[in-house]
Amino acid sequence: MMRSFPSCGWRIRLARVRLARVLAAAAACVALPVAALELPRERAVAGGVALVELGPALVAPQASLDGVPVLVAGRPGGWTAVVGIALEAEPGSVDLEVRAEGEPPRRVPVAVGPVRYAEQRLKVAPGKVDLSPADLARHERERLRSAEIVATWSTLDPGSLRMLQPVPGRRSGSFGLRRVFNDQPRKPHGGMDIAAPTGTPVVAAAAGRVIDTGDYFFNGNTVWLDHGRGLLTMYCHLSSIAVKAGDTVKAGARIGAVGATGRVTGPHLHWSVMLNRSMVDPALFLPGGG
């Protein structure tokens, strides 16, 4: 006589429900540090930031632009890609590649609007424009080193997507300016200049980890901070550096002092913000959008 056993279908369904709850809780724990953040102001132009809604998903989707990972913030109820647009980008559209668990890869077009940055003409020491062979070789070494730093991608959660102004003082509208040194055109200006006296303390704009410090030919004494997921900040022309590579710093912690090292016309802080290897306007990350 065969004994009948109750169906095990309910056990399978219960296991699936429990698994879904565990995954949802895990996803929420991963997302919460980012989900609670106020996003930067959107300005979808060259040197700006685009905020792309990716929709709900149990696990955070992965996004990339031209093969470079993009920061994704949110929680299972809705995710947003925070996309840095390169200063060299032309008006039109770029494709964000999105991969969500259990779905085929998709491309999301991101419209890039037109923008016109002003031109700035500066006079500096001739040796800072027409480089000697030794200085040129040094610059090339530093360029390669900077490229490695810029490619940093860590799983740190950004402490904030809104930042502190790293030094008090008058902020110039210098981001994106077409720089002309001694009548010779150079790359657009990839940061914000803040005028302040030599020795004024410079603080971390957000919590992060020091990934590089050093004396660079053009940037002078410099500190790089990694805030996680491709969000970096750079502080240049310092008179002194108060941190070392590997240090963890809180938002507002002193990392150096204003100076006039490198290629400058006077004491000030050059502050850059980078997203997915693109220099973007720091003003978009300040309270009120700058």
TrEMBL record:
InterPro entries: Cell_wall_metabolism_enzyme, Dup_hybrid_motif, M23ase_b-sheet_dom, Peptidase_M23_N
Organism: Thauera aminoaromatica
GO molecular function annotation: metalloendopeptidase activity
Domain Peptidase family M23 N-terminal: 43-109
Domain M23ase beta-sheet core: 188-282
Name recorded for this polypeptide: Peptidase M23
Transmembrane stretches, start-end: none
Lineage: Bacteria, Pseudomonadati, Pseudomonadota, Betaproteobacteria, Rhodocyclales
